[in-house]
Amino acid sequence: MIVNILGFLYVISNTSIKFANKNPDVYNPDVVMTQYNMGVLYRKLGRFEETEHAYGEALEVYRKLADKNPKAYLIKLTQTQDSLGVLYYDQQNYYKAEICFKEVLQFYERLAEKYPQVYLSEVIRTLSNFRNLYNAIKKRKEAKKMQKRIEELEKKKA
């Protein structure tokens, strides 16, 4: 079933890209959502190169959309960057994962300043990703710093 869905998304993506090239403001949101969904399905199939490619293409479009309309697209950009970071972490590409997580943390911290009740838990989750990453690469001092920040934010959240 996943393969059928992936084929369907592939056809939609190619069609949407043609329309997006002619009228990007109208069709890019559809194209990028399809690209991201293709990445999710590729990941479920264990096709990690295709996952990385799909997430990368989605990020490129989300960056452009977020520049024009951050309220509408910053969160999607952040979620896509986070998915890419988790992919890299799972593949033990810790250098790239760290780069992704840094950007994700910046975005979520920015969002949490305005909407702490919604995004503080995402900041905590991202800090947990950092803690796990630093433990994996034996940077115990950094991992402890992340744990301390997590505990501080958990108290603030309560």
Helix and strand arrangement:
Elements: H1 2-22, H2 24-44, H3 48-68, H4 70-90, H5 94-114, H6 116-136, H7 140-157
The structural class is: mainly alpha
Give the topology string: H per helix, E per strand: HHHHHHH
Shape: flat
Q: Architecture of the largest domain, CATH level 2? A: Up-down Bundle
How would a crystallographer describe the biggest sheet?
none
Find the count of extended strands (DSSP E, 2+ residues): 0
Tell me the distance between the termini. 42 Å
Oligomer: single chain
Q: How large is the count of helical segments?
A: 7
Overview of the structural elements:
This protein is mainly alpha-helical. The protein has two domains: 91 residues, Methane Monooxygenase Hydroxylase, Chain G, domain 1; 65 residues. The protein has seven helices and no strands. The protein is flat and about 40 Å long. About 6% of the residues have low confidence.
